Write the structure tokens for this entry.
Amino acid sequence: MDSLAASRLLWVDPDPPSSVTQPPSRQPTAGQVAAPRERRSQAGTMEEGSYSEVPVEPPLRRWRCGRQGVKLALLGLLTAALWAGLLSLLLLWHWDTVQSLKQLEDTAAQNVSQVSKALKQQDAEFSRNLDRVVENLSNLKSLGLNERRRAFESLERLRLEVDKLWVELREANGSRCGSCPEQWVNFRRKCYYFGQGSKKWVQARNACRGLQGQLVSIHSQQEQDFLTRHVSRTGSWIGLRDLDIEGEFVWMDGNPLDYSNWGPGEPNNGGQGEDCVMMQGSGQWNDAFCYSPLDSWVCDRLATC
Ligand SMILES: [Ca+2]
Ligand SMILES: [Ca+2]
């Protein structure tokens, strides 16, 4: 009810209270507020304008409220500004982090690409070097095998020459040299073995060596006629080949090709290469593929005295 009366008094007072410009006073106590009410009841006849200076409390409250509102608004603005600054800092930090990560990712990708490229180059270089080493080893192995084969064939020719000289010496001394091992057939100074069984040229050569002989070498028409009478009708390997130099045929005994009995159109080095010679059932010769198996082969060796 005091506030209602004060509002009424404030409304009827045309002049602004002088107390507004004064510093705010302390809140009146219950006794202090009751004093005007007593004065009002006692005076009775006092003019209403005289009460307008007493209730200074509502403007003071509004002033206080306004100032608090301003403070709250400023505080809100300050808080908002702080949050905006903090958010900006977070966004800047996030953007900087993202840029750093992206830069690191790009750098890592470039490094991986460079390492991968270097590894590929090293791998290709290593493969080339390995191929060269393998090729050199293969050439060395082939060269070594060829040298070993030539040395072995030279030794065989030397042994054969020694045997020939021995036979000529014995015949000069009146001995008759025509003895052959069992299953070998004698013709003049030589013995012949007609082997049976499927063999390639190299296998036939080794089979003859195992019998202390070699694949047959033919040097005359008489020898060819003898062999034609005994040779297999399906074809047999003989000791003639051009393995080292194409077209340059060599006998197993090392003698030159002083006699030949080639079939029509032979030697033709046909197909994938024909470097080993076989005698057909007719007795004619044909160069053939060395890895083709034949069912027969012919060995020879010097007869003994
Ligand atoms: Ca050939
Ligand atoms: Ca041929």
User: Anything to note?
Assistant: The pocket of calcium ion (ligand 2) is lined by residues 266-268, 270, 274, 286-288 (CB under 6 Å).
